[in-house]
Amino acid sequence: MERLDDSTLNLLRLSDCLCADDEPDPGIRKQVFKNPVKFMRQSWWKIICVILLVYTVIGGFLFSVPAREILHETIRNLYFHVCMWFGMMILFTASLVYSIKYLRSQKMQYDIYAVNFAKTGVLFGILGYATGIVWASYTWTEYASSTQIFTEPKLLGAAIALLVYFAYFVLRGSITDIDKKAKISAVYAIFAYVMLFPSIWVLPRLLESLHPGKEGNPALKFDDLDGRLRTVFYPAIVGWTLLGVWITSFKIRLDLLKDKSIL
Fold this sequence. Notes:
The chain is mainly alpha-helical. It has one domain (about 40-260). It contains 10 helices and no strands. Helix 4 (about 45-60) packs antiparallel against helix 10 (about 225-260), helix 6 runs antiparallel to helix 10 (about 225-260) and helix 8 packs antiparallel against helix 9 (about 180-205). The two termini are about 25 Å apart.
């Protein structure tokens, strides 16, 4: 029997991953990071994602919410704006994990995972930023000037964080050598993730801010979040995050097929 070359073996391994069955494995936590393509091909978590997002939309628009001063009915945006930011942080964390795994193993597929999780994280960041601006236009304009809004530390910090990740993609596009691109990108991804914390979580709390949560994160403080909000808020975080993973899975599988010759 003729011996198969390395590229053919890689194609067969890729096919095995992409054709994995839909039943969840017992060691699901290990599988997500050990073989993410196989996990992404399963359907059970996608069904959960759809159910949670349908519940989020229905609950977000129809369930009762507490009457809070200034916010009023706009508080429903909590299920979209804040939850998308939580999803963004989780996706950026996954990008960080795979960047580190690439630096340790030099396996090119980890670079593909890292960059695609970062892309989806930026998408969620843009959506979160946009919903935040819409929310501010209905609340902050009642008692703050346009100058105060445009110089709001939270908005500026979020914009800086997104620009740092935009620079990540510009950096990747400027390097032609595949191995060099992956190594430099992985190092920069660690830097970009570290920059999230001072720009989004630290500096806005040290400065005067229109944004709620200066003394802490009201979404994580149990006493600050009404019970009616919690019933939708926490499932919404899971639902939006799973949607981000789902979007990422499509891009990863396309990139694996396109770059199968280098795996």
